[in-house]
Amino acid sequence: METGLRNRLAVVAASSQGIGRAAALAFAAEGANLALCARNRQTLDHVAQEARQKHAVEVYAEVLDVGDDSGVRQFIHQANTHFGRIDICVTNAGGPPAKPFSETTMEDWDRAYELNLRSIISFAHAVLPLMELRRWGRFITLTSISVKQPVPELVLSNSIRTGVLGLVRSLAGQYGPQNITVNNVAPGFTATARIADIARRRAAEAGVTPESFMAEMARDIPLRRIAKPEEVADAIVWLASERASYITGQTILVDGGSYRGI
Ligand SMILES: NC(=O)c1ccc[n+]([C@@H]2O[C@H](COP(=O)([O-])OP(=O)(O)OC[C@H]3O[C@@H](n4cnc5c(N)ncnc54)[C@H](OP(=O)(O)O)[C@@H]3O)[C@@H](O)[C@H]2O)c1
Fold it and tell me: Atom 46 (ligand 1): residue with closest C-alpha?
């Protein structure tokens, strides 16, 4: 399938590990150049180097906390100055901590808003005017199955991320006439450091091993396994491609069938 992504410029936020990293490498495999960011320089440079070496693409990588609004704007300005274009923007950030509602603090709520909703607004403000100028764009948010089906103990994610859906639908309506699509990818359990962490904690609480806890999680998924980050990345790349040119305002679940609603 020809994706039409060669020589496009893909911004992938929070892309040194996990799903962000897999998305960055999947875009590079399609010949797209990259603008990447994360907070840790070492792991970020590692991904940038891997993309350059394996796929001969150009990569701009900058240390950034996506909760820093002026930092996001500066990052996009520099990427646009460097490449002269921003075609695709995938927003991402670390997920909020898993804890029962009674243990959440107001600081937790503020940080969850800052990372998982406000950071997307920062990226949208910075990239959409640039996409409008070229009358082509793909804005893709990465959220969670929690936007469809609340996950126990992820009250911060369950609450804040639904706001992203309102934003996605609003932007899809407003920017459609400029040939910019806006979509959301919502993964279920995916084998990354974040999920290993959650599994370790919950396994300890339940008095079982992390491995048996993960196997138990997989038993509830119709496909009977946890996703690989590359499987989520494939959905992101497809939405960014020419093959998804008439799809906008949608949430694509990549959850192995976990969401049981119709
Ligand atoms: N894995 C799952 O099962 C799953 C399921 C549903 C939804 N999700 C959501 O998908 C997103 C990605 O999850 P993941 O599993 O890929 O996570 P991960 O493996 O922990 O990777 C998170 C990435 O984001 C970067 N990052 C974290 N906070 C950041 C910040 N403030 N500014 C910039 N970069 C930041 C990290 O690098 P630095 O630490 O260096 O900044 C790292 O590259 C999260 O929002 C998560 O909640 C994950």
Answer: 95
Q: Ligand 1 pocket test: which of 34, 39, 231 has the largest number of ligand atoms within 8 Å of its C-beta?
A: 39
- The closest-lying atom of ligand 1 relative to the alpha carbon of residue 95 is 47
Q: What is the mean pLDDT of each run of 10 residues along the chain (262 residues)?
A: 96 98 98 98 98 98 98 98 98 93 97 98 98 98 97 94 98 98 97 86 88 90 97 98 98 97 93
- Within a domain: residue 1? no
Tell me the CATH number at 29: 3.40.50.720
Same domain, 215 and 180: no
Looking at the structure of the chain, the number of domains it has is 2
Helices (H) and strands (E) in the chain, counts: 10, 7
Quickly list DSSP for 124-143: HHHHHHHHHHHT-EEEEEE-
This prediction has a pTM of 0.97
193 CB under 6 A from ligand 1? yes
